[in-house]
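Memo to structure team: turn this sequence into structure tokens by end of day. - J.P.
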Amino acid sequence: MFSNEVPETRPVSISPAAQVGMAGVQGIREQLSRRVFIDGVWILPFIQGGKGVGATNGANAGAWAAENTAGTISGTGAAIGYDNDGHPITYPYTGRTRRERHEELVAWSIEGGILQATTAYEASGGRGGIRINFLKEAGGAMRVMRGVLAATRTPGGGNMIHAVTMGAGLPSEEDARICADEGVYLDPIISSVMALKVLLKRAFKNWQGRYAELIGAVVYEDPWLAGGHNGITSRENPAIPEDPYERVKALRRVMNDNGMEDVAIIMAGGVWHLRDWAHWLDNPEIGPIAFQLGTRDLLTRESPVTDEWKQLVLSMREGDVALNKFSPTGFYSSAYQNGMIREMYQRLERQVSFARKPDEIMTERVEGLAAANKRYFVSRDDKVRIAAWIAEGFDMPLPTPDDTLIFVTFEKAREIKRLETECAGCLASCSLSTWSQDPEKNHSTGKRADPRVYCIQKGLVGAIQGGNLDEKLIFAGHNAYKAGDDPFYRNEKGDVFIPTVKQLIERLMTGD
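Reply from structure team:
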């Protein structure tokens, strides 16, 4: 489907702001060729974005490491094998209860993580760094992490994996202890100075004054630019992005105050052309710096995502990727606004408050429902709106934890219920299924299932396995639209060109 002809190298256009401390293309090439000490090894300042649930694997992580950069395995839901089309094999659940399926999930995840780590180690040829990314909010994350790390020692007694990266929640002291026990670094993914301060005080308190012994790098993931789950807090406005330079400069000050002057910061989110970041290089306000590339990694031949997904990235336009809060984790996330996400917004539009018994406001009983035995009372104005939705076929009300109803079709309600009952506990706590991995809470969140969120497992795994991407969850960075206008991805004939990881690294070295 894609051309193998390498496009002609074009001159790099450098903005005035990007010319600080450099002399054109040759200057930035020299700066980007300098090694950075990350996770115990000296590597080029390019880091493969981790991406959860199979969007990176051992083969392409190993290809990054082989270029003396850092490759990152997706450790959450790692593939245990592949079918004839190269798609990951679905975990073969047999358990009848959520708890039984959760135990299977943990066991399969460990097996998959070991396979992918071994593959990456062999593909790297002993070069670069290999990292494994775990989502803190993933079900059984600590158990999987310990199982994978313990089983991936090298014949010489070292580690196939240099570091664990952890996002979608802050690492705990137990996470830090697991990494220390297994002799690997723990690289936290944070999105603010406040998050780092909390982390150093809690998870790394036993390493006070010697954080660099365990922290191989700090990943700053810009909450307004990165793909996937984002760390926007209640103090920040999701609609008003803040300057990453100022936020990272403040982060460096805190790191320096804690004896981490030589610990590199990895800038993640919004990184496309490195010439746009030239003023970060050799900059004492920023310190040692490397750049993480998640979306650009999708557009490599070694990337495990489908050709259809790669074509989709090349067709994206500015604004196609946006923040939403439909994740069952409770975090904001950045995703491509496809049919699946649009349907989630439409659910919110068909939402009203209700009561089980009539009162002064909720005076009208809802009629004409598919579930005729249900008694819901709403306001007079809302009853008019509901009648219009029912006439359109949205005649199945689903209660939410906030004492509201959303209205969906009978088929969609059945799908939502099926996802809830088939839950395998892929999250530590899931608002869609009410699952909690905490036995002290009887494996329940104690709240009503929320039909206003998506099933993250179905969305992400479904995208990796192929099929209709309009119905899947497509995480991407906000600058994904730049792919379509980047001449690197077209040859002289105008055909689509997908580079190897090696070719991408060579391109990055030019600042383009």
